[in-house]
Amino acid sequence: MRRTGIILKNNPLLWAIAVISVAVPFMLPNRYYQDIAVLTLLWAGLSSSWNLYSGFCKRVCIGHAAFFGIGSYTSTLLYLKFGLTPWAGMLAGGLLAAVAALMIGMPTLRLKGTFFVLSTIAFAKILEVVITNAKALTQGPHGLFIPYQPSFHNMIFVDKTSYAILAWAYMICVIVINAAMARSKLGYSLVAVGENQEAAENLGVNSSRTMLTAFVMSAVLTAFGGTIFAQYIGFIEPASLLGLMNSVNFILYAIAGGMGTVFGPMIGAFILCPLSLLLRGSLTISGLHGFVLGLILILILLYRPDGILPQINLLIAYVKRKRNPKGKSEGGGEVDGDAS
């Protein structure tokens, strides 16, 4: 099995990219580009949250927009109805997402292939219908506006760089959890279940508990990102939060960067999210940016199905071999670039 724990020692460049990315919004010329930076950092964290279960386990969930919506609506409703700070509302949203993940996970995680995928889509769609029809509470399809009252207590800031720092901190936390998962017993068990569930169970792995634990963790982290998104945008409505396109974005960035790797979703989001937003703003034909992104994804799947990150790892390994012809890392062991 791949030695994923070695990522902390042998890939300082990827950690440096993750850490230094917080400085990017401060160097951008205007609020438009800063907005792109905020959303990029946020989606890097959200895609990494999705990767925590689906990436390691290789079971694609297309319903994570449901947990995203749960986080957004829980914190927003608590803030609007009771004046509860979104910092506490974020925790409440995470708790509610955990309960929802348990309820949906216990019966559906036993399903395989298409059946599991369809069940996750159905969950997100049912939740969208429920929120749309609960007009007395959620204003239905009209959505909810969050009053612009800047303060740390309200998680509302005047400048976009503050949001960028918040989104960056969220992304770093999720990446650290992914890294910890990759070198933990739970992570190894999850990878084993994804490779061959029956063989893993024969070796003593409790596949149901392993998958459910990772699924709940993924749901909670996604809900946290939903709260940050709601406070940043200032308006939420069911179609945009719980729609299929949001769920696809979780998957798109992870697959493009390297599904099942610690830094793959981050790399995918850093490349494709700004590209998507810039194309959307520059192309005159509506929906053409989606066609371009779809074409890029098809090319990646055809020619680099493992994603962009393994190619970066190969480049890093090549540079290290050039600098050290003996092909050994600083610690004396072979470099395991694929573990990132």
The largest sheet has its strands arranged as 1-2
Mean pLDDT: 87
Span between termini: 14 Å
Shape assignment: globular
Q: Report strand %.
A: under 5%
Main sheet characteristics: 2 strands, antiparallel
* Uncertain stretches: 1-9, 329-339
Give the topology, please:
Elements: H1 7-10, H2 12-20, H3 24-27, H4 31-57, H5 65-82, H6 86-108, H7 114-133, H8 135-138, E1 144-145, H9 160-182, H10 185-195, H11 197-202, H12 207-233, E2 235-236, H13 238-242, H14 244-257, H15 264-282, H16 288-303, H17 308-323
Antiparallel strand pairs: 1-2
Helix pairs in contact: 4-9, 4-12, 4-14, 4-15, 5-6, 5-12, 6-12, 9-12, 10-12, 14-15, 15-16
Overview of the structural elements:
The structure is a single chain. With 340 residues, the chain is mostly helical. It has helices at residues 7-10, 12-20, 24-27, 31-57, 65-82, 86-108, 114-133, 135-138, 160-182, 185-195, 197-202, 207-233, 238-242, 244-257, 264-282, 288-303, 308-323; strands spanning 144-145, 235-236. A two-stranded antiparallel ribbon has the order 1-2. The chain starts with 6 loop residues before the first helix and ends in a 17-residue tail after the last helix. 45% of the residues are buried.
